Every structure is written in structure tokens, then in C-alpha cells.
Amino acid sequence: MRGLTSAIRTLSILPVPGAEAESLADALPWFPLVGALLGWLLLATGWGLEQLPGIWPQGSAFSILLLGVLLTRGFHLDGLADCADGLGGGYSREKRLAIMKDSHIGVFGVAAVALLLLGKWVCLARLISVNGLMWLPTAWIVSRTVPVALAISLPYARENGTGAEFVRGSQGKHLATAFIVAGVLIGLGGGPLHLLAWIPAGIFALILGCYTRQRLGGITGDVLGASIEVTETLILFLGCFLVF
Questions:
Q1: Hey, what's the torsion of the CAs at 235, 238, 242, 244, to 10 degrees?
Q2: What is the pTM of this model?
């Protein structure tokens, strides 16, 4: 259970007792479960807001979006901003990695975060208006599985960093377990139609992995965080088209 403790502490601000896993890579199989816990918490919040008089989809969507950012302390958004700045503004591998490590945020990062949050808000408002919020947990489950696949498939691009231990200690059993956990959770909560979420997630993971391998020589913690945010948004968009 130390792996679960490490996963919760890595992906959220939720307080949890217990010691960390000896290897942070042991947290990887638990990523989908943490995604489910957070997604269900947001889902419950959305359902609670729907009980208030005078349903306001845009306001409820903003509340869910804000809670999601708070629960993850904006950590993955920071990774998205760093990736956008580095990949958008660097002209060599070394320069891109240096920009990504810089604590300052540039115009590429600001634009990426703003557009992503706007996209999530639009999707959440749409899902609320058509009773499609069950796509919310699915998006959080699958998006927390994608970094496990990337960690298994690609080398770490730096000598050291926040994601180094996750990537270098990852094994095939971690990915297999994560997929099983994610599949069970999606099947229980969303149903067969929600399994289509793996399509955009898989395509995006493949494109991101190939692109960062070429531009960075592998992945970093920022790339893993960015993969979570973008995958989550893509699945919310998918849900908007599949809910009638």
C-alpha cells in the first residue's frame, strides 16, 4: 500500500498517512485509482451543484474546474506550461530542457494553460447541460494511465529530475496493472462506450512520445504532467460528442 500512498501524494494534495514507497515507480500502478478517486469527487461536486435551484452549467463547470486545479495544486498545469515554453521556444535539445527547467513562464506557456482551461470549461458546461458528467471520472482515470505508458516506453531526458525515479524504475508489470485497474474502474463506472476514451488517449500518447523523443531525447516530469492535462481534455471533448 505504500505505492498507493506515494501515488496519492504525487497526484493530489489529499492528506494520507503512511510511509512512501521504497521506489516511486511502485506508485505507477495506482495512478488510475487515484484518478478515479479525484474524478468521483469532482463528479459528486457536480451532482451536488445540480441540486441547487437555478441550474447554471457555466458556473458549475467553473466550480468543478477550480476544484480540480486545487486538488492537484496545479502541478500538471505547470508541467504543461513548461513543455509549451520549452518545445515552442527552444532551438536545440539543451535549450529546450533549460527553458523547461526555468521557473519563469513565457507566452507559449500562458497560451497553452489558458486554452486548455478554456477547453475544459466549455466541455464541462456541455456535459453538465446534457447529463454527461459520468465522462469526468473516465477522463481522470485514463489521463492518469497515459503517463504510466510513457514512463515505460521512453527514457528520461535529463540526468536527474522530479520524474527520474518514476521513469527509470518503471517496469512492464506496472503498466499491465495500471491498465487492468483502469479498465475495471471504467467498466464499473462508465460502461462499454467509455472504453472509446482509449482511442484519443492512445493516439495522443503515441504522438507525444515520438515528438518528445525527437525534440528532447525522451520525457521529463513536465512531459508526464502535460500528458495528463491534455489527455483529460481530449476525453472530455470526446464525451461531449458521444452524449446525446
A1: 90
A2: 0.95
**For residue 62, what are the CA distances in angstroms to 34, 42, 124?**
22, 12, 8
Longest dimension (CA), the chain: 55
Distances (CA, A) of 114 to 77, 100, 117, 209: 10, 18, 5, 23
The backbone region for 74, taken as left when phi is positive above 0, alpha when psi lies in -120 to 50, beta otherwise, is left
**How many Å apart are CA 226 and CA 99, to the nearest integer?**
15
pLDDT tens for the 244 residues of the chain, in order? 788 999 999 999 998 888 887 888 899 999 999 999 999 999 999 999 888 887 789 999 999 999 999 999 999 999 999 999 999 988 899 999 999 998 889 999 999 999 999 999 999 999 999 999 999 999 999 999 999 999 999 999 988 877 888 888 888 999 999 999 999 999 887 888 999 999 999 999 999 999 999 999 999 999 999 999 999 999 999 999 998 6
Position 2, amino acid: R
Three cell numbers, residue 87 = 518545445
Q: 10 Å Cβ neighbour count for 51?
A: 7
Q: What are phi and psi of 12, to 5 degrees?
A: -155, 175
HSE (side-chain half, CA atoms, 13 Å) at 208: 27
Identify the three-state secondary structure at position 15: coil
